[in-house]
Design brief:
Blueprint (H helix, E strand, L loop, with lengths): L1 E6 L5 E6 L2 E7 H5 L15 H16 L4 E6 L2 H7 L5 H4 L5 E3 L2 H12 L4 E7 L8 E7 L6 E7 L3 H6 L13 H15 L7 H13 L5 H12 L16 H10 L8 H29 L5 E4 L6 H8 L4 E2 L9 H10 L20 H8 L2 E2 L2 H9 L4 E4 L13 E5 L6 H10 L8 E5 L3 H4 L17 H4 L15 E3 L5 H14 L3 E6 L11 H10 L4 E4 L2 E4 L2
Parallel strand pairs: 1-4, 4-5, 6-9, 9-10, 12-17, 14-15
Antiparallel strand pairs: 1-2, 2-3, 6-7, 7-8, 11-18, 12-13, 13-16, 14-16, 17-18
């Protein structure tokens, strides 16, 4: 029988399973081509019922689903508010409907993807029906696979991203989108600054007293604490404004002044320092109590690779490829089916939506079969390559199937990608991909990092040779790969190693600013035609720029 996990807020997703196997995850953002899309709060669709029927019909046509054994969701009251939950039998007919709590679902998601039977699971993010910070003992063989042992009150995610509103180098976004992308921007910028002593105590006070995911209220608290450092209110809040209007004004940048240059960099760096300091203070007693267990990190804050890396220096740590809310659907599904072996979600997304167009595209664009030797010639020659092959990755990282690949030895490649392809700020770093057996050769790291979850130091002797993946602080968010995991990537790296003894590629997600990772040939061709990209690999074929 089929089972379905549904998560409907931002990063909405649908996870389909059969018996104890996870078959596929459809992320709404790639279904409707709207980044971080959701069906409430971040709603992006005029007719949710129609959209949900499309998702059900997709599974019906592909897998023959007529009726589900179980449909598992969370925050059911939100579905009721949207008006479709009473119609669930018509939309997703099922023998049984169940609810699972938010952080509990995160814990199931990460535990059942991990290689461990038993682990200490930390789930922390920006809000839910279970608060912000939770710790579990995970045990796959127990009647209660995730048992909560601690629930904290501090909101790490919203607290971490709020300073972005007041740093000039961070491009302001629509308030809801910004809430989901600012953390990554602060993390990139943190490498440019230094910890500033006078910022530490105000940030600690901010984290300690911010127990809300209300962005406008949290920003007000931050402004009050940082007025001595030059952050001044430009417009007093109107008490008649509702939350939506307050957030809109905050997103426009007209509420307060912003720190520039070194002061802004130092705020980002100190913010990261305080985030990690408070994390280790809060979780420390449980790390000590369960010192024989590996640690699993999940929730949106599981994407903080600097924190994960520092923990992994002294502990065995696993972070899944989908720790943020896009992994909720998998967690909901796993809470019911409890898989008997570790779930591999790496490439469990759909095939491209317009795959029936491939033959026509190849004829019109004069596509031809690729071979590895000529492809390596292109890479060494400085070409930027877009890759659309097989099923797409699940989660926020592109891991070779929806990637942009190029040569990391080219000095200005980072700036070219940021400015002329991705449309991102100058300080945003790019990830290297390397064969697992070579990771310790190039990086101060001897563990797997399959999902770009860790950011070790690049070995000193390779920093000048790999300038486009070496961040300003000497680190790199490395991806490791084996041939079993991705034959295409592995063989490409092997050929590069044969040619010049440097089997490293720059790998970034195939998307442009403000858009999700693409999932159509049409969108890939648009990037080829309109950005500084040289060629595409569509399945087993090459298409060059006209």
């Amino acid at each position: 029988m089929f089972n379905l996990g549904i998560y409907g807020s931002h990063n909405c997703a649908f996870a389909l399973g059969k018996d104890d196997e996870v078959l596929e995850v459809v992320e709404l953002e790639r279904f409707i081509n709207k980044k971080n899309a959701g069906m409430w709060f971040w709603g992006h669709h005029d007719n949710d019922i129609e959209l949900l029927m499309e998702v059900h019909n997709y599974f019906k046509n592909k897998y023959g689903v007529v009726k589900y054994a179980n449909v598992i969701t969370n925050a059911v009251e939100q579905y009721n508010d949207k008006g479709w939950w009473p119609l669930r039998q018509e939309i997703f007919p099922s023998l049984n409907y169940e609810n699972c709590l938010h952080h509990e679902s995160h814990a199931y998601c990460a535990l059942y993807q991990s290689p461990y039977d038993k682990a200490l699971v930390v789930s922390f993010d920006g809000g839910s029906d279970e608060g912000y910070f939770n710790v579990y003992v995970g045990d796959k063989k127990s009647q209660t696979p995730v048992a909560k042992i601690y629930q904290g009150k501090k909101d790490y995610a919203v607290s971490y991203m709020i300073p972005a509103h007041f740093i000039e180098d961070i491009k302001l976004e629509n308030i809801y989108e910004g809430n989901l992308v600012y953390a990554g921007k602060i993390m990139g910028l943190a490498a440019y600054g230094n910890v500033r002593e006078e910022y530490i105590q105000p940030l600690i006070e901010f984290y300690h007293h911010n127990q809300t995911d209300n962005i406008a209220i949290a920003a007000g608290k931050f402004i009050n604490l940082f007025q001595p450092f030059g952050i001044k209110i430009l417009s007093e809040p109107d008490p008649n404004d509702n939350y939506e209007i307050q957030c809109s004004k905050l997103g426009s940048g007209t509420v307060a002044t912003r720190l520039t240059g070194r002061e802004g960099w130092d705020l980002a760096t100190t913010n990261q320092y305080v985030f990690e300091k408070l994390f280790f203070e809060e979780v420390g007693p449980y790390l000590e109590q369960y010192k024989d267990l590996p640690v699993v990190l999940v929730g949106g804050c599981g994407l903080n690779i600097l924190n994960s890396t520092h923990l992994a220096e002294s502990r065995e740590v696993f972070v899944p490829p989908n720790p943020n809310d896009c992994g909720q659907a998998v967690g909901l599904l796993c809470s019911k089916i409890r898989p008997s072996k570790p779930v591999d979600c790496t490439y469990i997304g759909p095939e491209v939506w317009d795959r029936n167009e491939l033959a026509r595209i190849l004829e019109e664009r004069r596509g031809f079969l690729w071979n590895i030797s000529s492809l390596v010639d292109d890479i060494i020659g400085g070409k930027i390559i877009g890759v659309v092959r097989d099923r797409c990755e699940h989660g926020p990282r592109a891991l070779g199937n929806r990637s942009i690949l190029c040569d990391p030895t080219i000095k200005n490649m980072k700036d070219t990608l940021n400015q002329k392809v991705k449309g991102r700020e100058y300080y945003r770093p790019f990830a290297p991909v390397v064969r697992l057996e070579d990771v310790n050769k190039f990086f101060e790291w001897d563990k797997e990092s399959r999902f770009m979850s860790f950011s070790p130091k690049v070995r000193q002797e390779y920093r000048a040779l790999l300038p486009s993946i070496t961040h300003v602080d000497g680190t790199a968010r490395v991806q490791t790969v084996t041939r079993e995991q991705n034959e295409f990537l592995y063989d490409l790296l092997t050929e590069l190693d044969k040619r010049r003894g440097l089997g490293v590629l720059l790998n970034t997600s195939f998307n442009i600013a403000g858009k999700p990772i693409l999932n159509t040939y049409k969108d890939a061709l648009w990037v080829l035609d309109n950005k500084q990209m040289d060629l595409l690999i569509l399945e087993d074929y090459i298409i060059r720029k006209a």
